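WARN retry 2 of 3 for item q-0093 after timeout on previous attempt; input resubmitted unchanged.
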Amino acid sequence: MMRGYRPTPVSNSTLSFCGTDNSSAYKVDNGLLNNGCFLDALGVVPHVFLLFSTFPILFIGWGSQSSKVHIHHSTWLHFPGHNLRWLLTTVLLFVLVCEIAEGIVSDGFNQSRHLHLYMPAGLGILAAITSIVYYHNIETSNFPKLLIALLIYWTLAFITKTIKFVKYDDHGIGLRQLRFCITGLLALLYGLLLGVEVNVILRRRYMWFRYPTEVKPPDDLQDLGVRFQQPFVNLLSKSTYWWMNTFITSAHKRPIDLKTIGKLPISMRALTNYQRLRKAFDAQMEDGPVPLKGSRWIWRSLRQAFGRPLVLSITFRFMADLLGFAGPLCISGIVHHISSDNHSALPPVKLLGVHFISSEAFLANAYVLAVLLFLALLLQRTFLQASYYVAIETGIKLRGAIQTKIYNKIMRLCTSNMSMGDMTTAQICSLVARDTNHLMWFFFLCPNLWAMPVQIVIGVLLLYSLLGVSALIGATVIAVLAPLQYFVATRLSRAQKSTLEYTSERLKKTNELLRGIKLLKLYAWEHIFRSSVEETRRQELTNLRTFALYTSLSIFMNAAIPIAAVLTIFVVHVHVHSATDFDLSPAVAFGSLSLFHILVTPLFLLSSVLHSTVKALVSVQKLSEFLGSTEIETDQDPIVQTPANNNGNIKSVYALQLQAKLVNRKNKAKQDVNRNFEQQDQELTASAAQEDEVCIKIINGFFTWTQGCPTLTNIDIKVPFGQLTMIVGQVGCGKSSLLLAALGEMQKISGNITWNSLPKSDSEENVRAHYMNGRQSHPKRGSVAYASQRPWLLNATVEENILFDTAPNEKRYKEVIEVCQLQPDIDTLPQGDQTVIGERGIILSGGQRQRISVARALYQQTNVVFLDDPFSALDIHLSDHLMHEGILKFLRQEKRTVVLVTHKLQYLPHADWIIAMRDGTVQTQGTLKDIQCAEPELFEQWRTLMNRQNKENSTELKRKSFRRAMYSRDTMSLATEDEDEDSSTSTDEDSLRAELRHRTTIPWSSFATYLRAAGMLLLPLLVLSQLTKHSLMVAIDFWLAHWTSHVIAAQMESAERNCTISRDCEFSHSSYLQVFCVLCGLGIVLCLVTSLAVEWTGLRVAKELHCSLLRIIVLAPMRLFETTPLGNILNRFSTDTNTVDQHIPATMECLSRSTLLCVSAVGVISYVTPVFLIALLPLAIACYFIQKYFRVASRDLQQLEDSTEMPLLSHYSQTIEGLTTIRAFRHEQKFKKKLLEHTDANNISSLFLSAANRWLEVRMEYVGAFVVLIAAVASITNALYSQVSAGLVGLGLTYALMVSNYLNWIVRNLADMEVQLGCVKRVSALIHTQPESYDGLMTPAQVPAGWPKYGEIQINNLSVRYDTSLKPVLRHVNAHIKPGQKVGICGRTGSGKSSFSLALFRMVDTFEGQILIDGIDIAKLPLQMLRSKFSIILQDPILFSGTIRFNLDPERKATDKMLWEALEIAQLMPVVKALPGGLGE
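OK item q-0093 returned
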């Protein structure tokens, strides 16, 4: 409370409702309504009515009828005016708080306590809270009749406040009295709430109307799968993310997965937002032609589709920024009123028996300012988080819409764009993954573009009002140095790109090392490749040093520029003003310091926003170019299926035949009726019947892939219905292009393509209708089962690839498996036909991929089947079986039209129709007899080739049959043994996966591992510099408080002395300024040292961890590579190493800085007001549980967001690669549906992650607001009663104002650090792998020169195993191989042949027996020496990137003559000599 108006102490005996110091308080001679106390008492009546009328409903028997209504999520069925009611109630609560504060302050001038000044307002707050809780329960239960209690309450409250307002006006109480204004506002608010209640009655008609309005809850809430409730909850839950409480806490008990987060609401789904975006695009096209180049039309479309929520976000940001200035102003006011007596406010006026104060007197109270500061902080943080959420939600919606738009464009993309290299899969995936994210983050940062200029202007003006011209100079320093930040950020980006190039090269070499690790160990070459990887790593570290340097500069500038600017401001302020000016008070100093913290943020953020804007502009330009690329012809678009016909969109031939028979029966009944018509159209019917024999007809067709000469010329072909058509010709003559031209994939220069959709029918009505469709309406082709020359498979199971999203039919499925001979291959797969085959079928051979592709075409019940060279990757046995059982039997039985492209001329006699291609044109077509008569030379050429192929195939067939029989017998006999070995291997893999998926708490042991890798020099430097820097920062602020407090003390002393001579009143700032400059200079230096120490520590750790990891991987036993997926090991060198290199240092710096700043703030506040420590305990407990639950949920959601992004990008790449197949099958809509599922899964993960971040920040901001309130109240009390200096009060409040930001950064960085330390943990786990024993009992000097000289091998009682936990694979083997013998080792599969050879290289564990070579036990030899003396040829050939010389002799020991001799023996000398570089190629 301000010192100028100390209340008179009163005793408890004088406490009464109307007070006891005024006898007129209870007089009603002039009427009840002219008594001030009665007017206040009258206002209590509505509140008491509401509390007593709603209490039974809320707490005794609530919901006797409404509880029977079972609606998901408590049914947020919003009544009309829902948001307006919540806003008005919030404003009402704020005004009631002000009324209580005004009553308390006014009561301070009375002799006794007047409860009527603030008790009715307290009851009003209770009633307002009760009203909104009561309304929420009624709304969620959809029982509006009980709103009658609120209608009565608002009416009574409006009437009582209006009476009070009128009576105040009658007694001359006007706008200069604050209570008059508050009463008028309350009357207005109650009137508006009454209007809202009446509006509910008129809209819902729940009373006074015969038929009430029936309203159903939103469709999303009726869907049990929708768990993202942000759009449906009330305004309080929206602003505080209260609905996330259950979700966040449940994540601590069980991991979050896609089932947990459910589905997106309809308004947030990708399809909904794509339709909104498409409507905006269409509107742009209607306004005028859209330019092929340029991006303005895209920006206009984005603004039209998503501009409205962005405006809402900008509005929230403006309100948050304006409320943010309340902090510095309130701090300045509090310190100002504490530091000196203030009598400038008008004295209170006594009317109606009580005191009325003005707004100036109200705001002159320090406690009032503390409460207003608290409320302003709550509102400011709420608006800020609402702005963030709306912006990121809009960005996520935009990303989903653009990704869907890109996918739809891909579906219409011309094949030539991909085949000719104009647009690659990587470019499109980059557009999806990177550019859409650039646009999303631009929308997130877009409100800053509008808010930052306003924030900067207002901040500079307020600083100018406090400090004068020195504020402008300080702002100029920041403005001048801000572009330097942008320059450093640009250099940082360039350094990162340069580092990525070396990282890619290192990963390429590491991948080669890991893939060929068995060969490298057997040849003792692992150290050569390790040295190559280390050389690339050294180059990468050189660029990482540059990256670290610019990162440290960026960190340094963020910390040093504010110090330099503050120093400049106070130096200029001291020198500009006269020596006798006491303007540098604590209120000015710490108010300007708080303003400065606000001003620095947008200036530093400016570089990031500009960088994001540039990226968004480039991304939109790329998007414009992509959307303007060439599309396929529109007449080839698929027919849109209605939802009712989804299951029957592909008609089988049997169904068509049945339909034809039914139509024939109907036609016989109608013969007499249609006789006249048949006679008139007899000629038309005959021609239609002739045309109906042809399924596909191309007339005078010219087709091309690119602009220029046509690829196919003068194409005139026909494909008959229900028959086998073969297309033959030399390689490159255009056979595959002809199929794609018929499918509409090539650009048509001229000619006509006709597809007839129905087979020939005896019904003349059908013929006539078909003819009319074919000749006039040009029906679009139906689905075509297409098997491309290069098999295209999904990253799914074998069964899903064959079914291809059609209805399963077990009998048909087994038939297709049989005719394609896939059962033996399926039996060898780990999970049979449920095995996921990987991208592009990576785990399958070429022949297996080809047969699965053909099986998919056979399984589909389409009329037309296109097979493009299906025998290219098959041996003759499989080719014959597929031809006879699959094509000639299976497809012909169903009378399907088959077009087969093949080079197997021996199958020509089976063809019903033959098309011979040559040099891009049709050489001839017809049956084999027709071609024999028309083209005898061509026929003779074919017959010669057929005879040659038949002879070769018969020999090959016998060989293959013998091999298959032997294979089947071996497989049968070893089934049990293989199962045992496979089960042990799978158990190891499962345990590894379980370990990698294990959810742990913060891995502090990994953090200790990280710090130990830093070394004993950098680690103490890092810790000491951090502690010293933050101690110095606190010292600077303490010195400023000490300085300004002395200024105030000197000012008061001069006022007491009433000095008139300038020398007597002079206050010297020089000594204070000198110390301040020294402290600031040291602070700037320490900022540089700290930033460099953090980054150099990170570099040292990155170097040490990668070096140790590479060394241990090279020395690890082969069992590690056999039981651990190669991708997992490679991820340690890629993703995890990148995290250690670039991300952990920045996170560690930010975490340590925010933690020390928070500790400093709490320490300063506790020093100024020790009573704060009492309130610190519950706040600390709250923060602990908030961060505990958030970290677990955040980690799961981040992993879920990453895991859902990969299938999305994979779906894009799969679609691009199989675009021709998808369009041939007419599966565009099915793949679009899958795309929407993947996009929605990724988007809902991102939305939940964003909501979780907002959940955290809102709670931490509210905790920070309570810290400010407690610190302010305690500081004011100490200052008024314990004479604490005003400088320390300003210091404590300034620190308290930043606590919420520090808390947020601590938890966010702690969550990031937890995820990143998981990388260190995984790397450390591999580093602790037990290496092979490379050191032997014998030294190389003890081994005889030239060993092994003779090659005598003596094996005594040898038993080996692959691991100590596995069974032996060789038991008690004894053998003696004499020098010079050539020994063949034979045996069935799994008998131990390979294990025997590996034992010679000590690649397996020899736990019993010994191997002697030339009398020396190989177990005693150094491992490197042993393996370097032997040579082996592996079953799987492995080549490394590099020259032929390097692949033959990495050690560079052999001469060119020796290498050429080796190539000659391998019959490769002519091939290598033909290369331009020879051995160096």
